[in-house]
Amino acid sequence: MKPGNQFVVFGHFFNFLATGADSNGRYLIYEDLVPPGGGPPPHTHPDEELFYIIEGEFEFILHDLDKPFRVAPGQLIRIPGSAVHTFKNVGTTAGRTITMLLPGELEKYYRAVGIPVTDPSEVPDLSLPPDYPNMDLRKAFELAAPHQVHFVVPTTVQSS
Question: pLDDT digits over 55-107, tens only?
Fold first, then answer.
């Protein structure tokens, strides 16, 4: 592990394997350790994203928030740039993906909002679901638009 390349983002542990600096700004490749119940809110960003599932039980959404689908270990899923998407670890143990972003602009967002990990003791307990209600996610939402990340809030119509 290279110093300065590990972060906690939305309760996940990111280990950058190949950064923009390593690839002349062409891509970012990182290992994502996702606790049970972990996953980002639905969102879009210009980067194309490729997820290779190493282990765990994942449910993805691509375009339609009402149509989640399972992606098993050994499978690869491609998310086109600017597509509405999200994923969730629906299993009871931590999951692991290798994710590639092209051209990897999202790396700047991760570095801006992530909590740097300099010691293994700083990694959250990935066997437990993230404590989203008590997480301070203000920075993640405040810095989203400047990094071309747009979170999608589902709309519901309630009748009285």
Answer: 999 999 999 999 999 999 999 999 999 999 999 999 999 999 999 999 999 99
Alpha carbon 77 to its chain centroid, in Å, reads 14
Give the tokens for residue 76.
């690869």
Across the chain, the runs of DSSP E, i.e. the strands, are 6-9, 12-18, 28-34, 43-44, 48-55, 58-62, 69-71, 76-79, 85-89, 95-102, 115-116, 150-151
Is the CB of residue 27 less than 8 Å from the CB of residue 101?
yes
Contact 112, 33 (CB under 8 A): no
CATH number of 6-118+129-140: 2.60.120.10
Per-residue pLDDT, averaged over 131-155, amounts to: 90
Q: How far is CA 96 from CA 102, 138, 151, in A?
A: 20, 26, 23
Predicted structure pTM score = 0.91
Q: Give the Cα separation of 45 and 61 in Å (integer).
A: 15
Q: What is the mean pLDDT of the chain?
A: 93
Q: What 8-state DSSP symbol labels residue 123? A: S
